[in-house]
Amino acid sequence: MSGIGMAAAQDLARKVETFVREVVAPYEQDPRRDHHGAPTDALVHELREKARAAGVLTPHIMPDGGHLTQRETAVVLAASGLSPLGPLACNTAAPDEGNMYLLGKVGDAALRERFLKPMVEGHARSAFFMTEPAELQGAGSDPSMMITTCRKDGNHWVINGTKCFITGADGAQVGIVMARSEEADSAGGACMFLVDLPDPAIRIDHVPNTIDSSMPGGHATVTIENLRVPADQMLGQAGEGFKYAQIRLSPARLSHCMRWLGACQRANEIASDYANRRMAFGKPLIDHEGVGFMLAENLIDLKQAELMIDWCASVLDTGSLGTAESSMSKVAVSEALMRVADRCVQVMGGTGVTDKTIVEQVFREIRAFRIYDGPTEVHKWSLAKKIKRDWKQAHAH
Question: What family name appears in the similarity comment (predicted)?
């Protein structure tokens, strides 16, 4: 992964930051929202056209189709995250950013032209159909529990199953569907398929109200019934879906960290401004030790999160899957940013729990982030397994 160099990436990040602060942030009170507060596609389209005009649409992907390095991506995505609307405007938001990365890595030329190109150009949203309902004992943090199936039928594959928490499914034009193969030659492994959306065989049953509200289309529960997909729309090879999921998930976890770092930096700016302006008991809030210390702790947590992201990005840039490193970063960054967001609300008191600023939304989004792409406890469990495995290898003889 060659990238553009850190100096150029930092210049690009400053360009993105200027756009997000000056153009995107004023839209934060725009009323074009759906039933659970997420931006409508009309609002997203308007913002993307402004990003296109400003030259900051899909900034992490170069004109020749190459991807910035992970370290370069980190500074750009953090800048886009300075507003909850920033990643949508700049086309760096989940799940599209992770789906674009996966298609760029695994998709052949025909699939990239048909499905990836409109995503990179900002004309199409996408959804990643992996998670399944807990009541069905389906795949969640453990993808190997997948119960959605696919079977060959001539030159097509037929998919059946139920998926849930499918971010952006409502309104998406591109879907990546993951299913367990019933074919003997794929050894019961998972397969991934590219599909055009909407499709009558994929029925949205329910879009729940959730604590977060930054992602268009919400987190839908869907039923897939006899979905027929041409064989040439399989992503990669049959039975390799779990491997491809890891190719996507490790950098996608880190991308979440990048974007929400930017959001928490902005929330901390807002809280710090409030603490310096607001008077109480004869002096500004910042001069009260209980408040000043919270903001000091925010600076420490933000810097540690930034360093953790940079370290993990460096590992991924070596070509490693970085599974352990991304787990450590996901835990450390999500927990640190939760502390930052919570302190911002606390510093601002009653104002902090209103929608007068983005602080209360950032708090809600970060709480959900602790669950996205594997909750903290699953990553700790995975790391504990690695500790045990490494110990056994070290003491094998």
Answer: Belongs to the acyl-CoA dehydrogenase family.
Give the per-residue pLDDT at 1: 56
CATH (domain of 375): 1.20.140.10
Segments forming the whole domain that contains residue 29: 6-93
Same domain assignment for residues 162 and 231 = yes
pLDDT in tens, 58-103: 999 999 889 999 999 999 999 999 999 999 999 999 999 999 999 9
Task: For residues 169 and 39, state if they share a domain.
Answer: no
* Alpha-carbon span 16 to 55, nearest angstrom: 9
Domain boundary among 194, 214, 238: 238
Give the per-residue pLDDT at 147: 95
Asked, for residue 108, whether it belongs to a domain, the answer is: no
- Cβ contacts of residue 358 below 8 Å, gap of 6+? 28, 83, 84, 263, 266, 267, 270
Query: Which residues contact residue 57 at a Cβ distance below 8 angstroms, ignoring those fewer than 6 apart?
Result: 48, 51, 90, 91, 121, 122
CA distances from 139 to 101, 132, 146, 164, 205 (A): 22, 5, 4, 10, 18
Name every residue whose Cβ is closer than 8 Å to that of residue 49 and which is 6 or more positions away in sequence: none
C-alpha distances out from residue 136 to 58, 84, 131, 167, Å: 37, 33, 11, 19
Dihedral, CA of residue 138, residue 140, residue 145 and residue 149, to nearest 10 = 60
Last residue within a domain, chosen from 76, 93, 110: 93
* Mean pLDDT calculated for residue range 368-376: 93
